């Protein structure tokens, strides 16, 4: 049903654009159109612009027509630039229709209606300001030697990232921005993830419009129990959600990379020269990621795991964490831009761009709080 509405909407915009061609033909003039008789006045005959002015006016009709049609093609082909063509085209359409109100008032009303979703799109393209920095600074990091028995791609990864000495991270407060898809709509977002390394986390996320919070998400995984406070309600005491949250804990530990070496419950298994298996604990059992490394840089480019998405899921779904960029924070090379995707959806539902990270601060109370 939504797909039909989508194509109907695009069709209306295209037709609206093609109708603007009538204004170009009538006011150049290239021909006679009964609905748009030629004249040299605008604003209900109050403004006499002459023949030259009407030619300029006709060109504005043509520009609006081209803009609306081209922007519609951009939407249908998934181009990112469509909005920057559609917005001025609709405003131009509104302008020419208002100037010729007696003949084109219906077009003016349609352009006004079109401005509403465009304003929403504008709001959904505006990134919020970052959260303020965590009040405690990073505390000194101790180091430990790199184990000698790591699979080849894992050893190369740590040597590229830290050298032969591994900085030991015990807690992390990760602050960033990006986008979040919720109920089919992609919102700008800002987030703060708080981790007690290998033990638990708290997520606070704000989905925003025009930079202001529209929805707030508070979720945590502490003491082996997940609790998700979402705009649609609270989810807790669900074993499959606990299992998914545990994988989230260890997947996000890519920002706390020492934990994969210093926690005795985690271990690496060799696969080949560019991939390895990361075994992580879950309750009295274990779970696993497949980790892929970039053959050129040696850094991780993707982590995958089979994970439940909903409490009612009968089967696990492939979950993917893709690393798009790396940067150095607090002396450690970590992902600065990453995406999270459910394989059956085909595109990321979460994009994270790092603003700041604080290591080894006291988060004992903060990790059990709510809000930023």
Which terms summarize this structure?
single chain; 372 residues; alpha+beta; outer membrane lipoprotein receptor (LolB), chain A; 13-stranded antiparallel sheet; two-stranded antiparallel ribbon; 33% helix
TL;DR of this structure?
The protein has helices at 2-27, 50-76, 82-99, 101-124, 152-161, 239-252, 259-262; strands at 41-42, 47-48, 143-145, 165-167, 171-182, 185-196, 200-209, 212-222, 225-230, 233-236, 267-272, 275-282, 285-293, 300-307, 317-329, 332-342, 350-359. The chain is an alpha+beta fold and 372 residues long.
Q: N-to-C terminal Cα separation, in Å? A: 38 Å
Question: Major sheet: size, sense and barrel closure?
Answer: 13 strands, antiparallel
Oligomer: single chain
CATH architecture of the largest domain: Clam
Beta content comes to 25-35%
- Low-pLDDT parts are none
Round the mean pLDDT to the nearest integer and report it.
Answer: 95
Q: Please bin the fraction of helical residues.
A: 25-40%
Radius of gyration: 28 Å
